[in-house]
Amino acid sequence: VATTTGKRNGVSSRAKVLTIDTMNPTVKKVEYAVRGPIVQRAVELERELSQGVKKPFAEVIKANIGDAHAMGQQPITFFRQVLALCSYPELLNDSTFPEDAKSRARRILQSCGGNSLGSYSASQGIESVRQDVARYIERRDGGVPCAPDNIYLTTGASDGIVTMLKLLVCGEGATRTGVMISIPQYPLYSAALAELGAVQVNYYLNEEKCWSLDISELQRSVDEARTHCNPRALCIINPGNPTGQVQSRQCIEDVIRFAAKERLFLMADEVYQDNVYADGCQFHSFKKVLFEMGPEYSSTVELASFHSTSKCYMGECGFRGGYMEIINMDNEVKAQLTKLVSVRLCPPVPGQALMDLVVNPPQPGEPSYDNFIKERTATLSVLAEKAKLTEQVLNTVEGIRCNPVQGAMYSFPRISIPEKAVKEANGQQPDMFYCMRLLEETGICLVPGSGFGQKDGTYHFRMTILPPTDKLKILLDKVKEFHHKFTQKYS
Predict the structure, then answer these.
(1) Residue 188: is its pLDDT beyond 90?
(2) What angle do CA 145, 147, 148 make, to 5 degrees?
(3) CB atoms within 10 A of CB 370
(4) 384: Cβ–Cβ under 8 A, 6 or more apart, which residues?
(5) Are 242 and 452 in contact (CB under 8 A)?
(6) Residue 148 pLDDT more than 90?
(7) Strand partners, 327
(8) Residue 219 — pLDDT band, cuts 50, 70, 90?
(9) pLDDT digits (tens, 9 = 90+) for 220-231
(10) Which pLDDT does position 47 carry in this prediction?
(11) CA 282 to CA 232: how far, in whole Å?
């Protein structure tokens, strides 16, 4: 019963039903570094600059989140043409749009209720889109079969990942589900596990070997976790976020064997599959490797893999398009998964349409093909140049060590922070203190490594390589200059 706590203007004021003490306690444990206090302060600084407040910099350069278009990356023309036609079908009579864009738009609209993007779709996603996704996966994986019924279209990859975690989490106390995640990790995982009340089981990537994954570390992690929880799932991000590594085929095989031996459900976050830059590196999907290892593994290991329209050369974060494919899932559980996604009705239909274009782009001989290939290649080659530039410049700074950015969109350099600065941080994480000083003094917005997890006694920051090349050069020069001054001040 709500209690009366006094009168205000003659009206009884009652205690709030929902307070910080009565709210869901798991929500309070959720943290999400890429939109944390640093970013909030960056937004305030932008506001202050626009109001004419004098700062030691003229603009805030944000490199905190993998939001390609916000950083100036241009959309792919064909994708936007088709989406425009789907959104406003009267444009189908406009001669400025190429015929292949029009035929694609008609096909998508015919799959929508009432021929409108504004209608709900099936909960699992539009059937023709799921068929196209299945064909794309078969092509990508060299002919390994893919059933459209195993494809679930999602609201970005995040939605699929959280949905799978919901299915996996159960038990109490020592039987509570443990989920193995890499450290450094993408904060979606720690946030979702906190909200679901699952146990986060850390395994550390090897920074000395370019953030590679050691099976002995997975073994240490799972053995330790079994003393206090029930590890049931292993999450892999490849190419890596925030670390930018690309896993070798051998490593993926080893991980699959490990998952089979330890009876773990595999979750493969593969949203950066087109973002591979380093010589000698290549993307291998977990599904392809699983099936190449033969029926001993391909018929038993449970796998969910995820892709998205938000990364790669598309960068279409705002449309929230994505899919997951499930392999070897128990049929009764699959029925429960379908029920769970139906509660949310359906993923955004414009995002589904965009996903369809990503998996079924213009083909050779079609009017839009040459321009599509030109734009796609240009976007990926600029990202490759920026990956190299970031690594090279950061490694010229004494006290910063940056592994090669083999793939994805980020670098996660190690920074040395003098003992005096660690003391002055005064309870704040030292790399948070460093990043906040960097922001206040230079207008550069990066995320401290502590938001992603790191080995004790090491400090990092994560930055995206997405800003335009001229801005990225300014950013790197400012980081270089700041680190030098910061080190001198606290030495």
Answers:
(1) no
(2) 140
(3) 11
(4) 277
(5) yes
(6) yes
(7) 303
(8) very high
(9) 999 999 999 999
(10) 93
(11) 29
Contact 233, 199 (CB under 8 A): no
Q: Band of the pLDDT at 12, cuts 50, 70, 90?
A: low
Q: What is the pLDDT of residues 14-53, one digit of tens each?
A: 788 877 787 777 777 776 655 678 888 989 999 999 999 9
Q: What pLDDT is recorded for position 285?
A: 95
Helices (H), 169-234: 187-196, 215-225
- Cα–Cα nearest to 359, from 407, 409, 308: 308
Looking at residue 20, its pLDDT comes to 78
Q: Give the SS3 label for residue 465.
A: coil
Using the predicted structure, report yes or no on whether residue 2 has a pLDDT greater than 50.
no
Pick from 443, 449, 428: nearest CA to 479? 443
- pLDDT tens digits along 18-28: 777 877 777 77
Res 5 pLDDT > 90: no
How far apart are the C-alpha atoms of 354 and 121, rounded to whole Å? 14
- Map residue 359 onto helix, strand or coil: helix
pLDDT in tens, 343-361: 888 888 999 999 999 999 9
Give me the residue label for tokens 């010229």: 396
Tokens of 404: 């090669």
The answer to whether 472 touches 89, Cβ cutoff 8 Å, is no
Hey, what are 198's tokens?
A: 């699952």
> Are 229 and 199 in contact, with CB atoms under 8 Å apart?
yes
Helix (H, G, I), strand (E, B) or coil at 181: strand
CA count, 13 A, side-chain hemisphere, 44: 9
Question: Would you call 142 exposed, middle or buried from its count of C-beta atoms within 10 A (0-12, 13-18, 19+)?
Answer: exposed
Count of other CB atoms within 10 angstroms of residue 310: 25
Are 167 and 340 within 8 A, CB to CB?
yes
In the numeric block, which tokens belong to residue 432? Answer: 């948070």
Q: Which amino acid is at 471?
A: K
- Between CA 425 and CA 428 the distance in angstroms is 5
Half-sphere exposure of 234 (CA within 13 A, CB side): 30
Average pLDDT, the chain: 90
- What region does 232 belong to: left with phi over 0, alpha with psi -120 to 50, or beta? alpha
Q: CA 291 to CA 302: how far, in whole Å?
A: 12
Cα 465 vs. chain centroid, distance in angstroms? Answer: 14
| Helix%, strand%, coil% for the chain, nearest 5 | 45, 15, 35
What is the model's pLDDT at position 1? Answer: 46
Q: Which domains does the chain have, with CATH numbers?
A: 31-62+373-490 (3.90.1150.10), 103-359 (3.40.640.10)
Plot region of 223 (φ>0 → left; ψ -120 to 50 → alpha; else → beta)? alpha
Task: Yes or no: say if 358 and 321 are a contact pair by the CB < 8 Å rule.
Answer: yes
Contact 56, 442 (CB under 8 A): yes
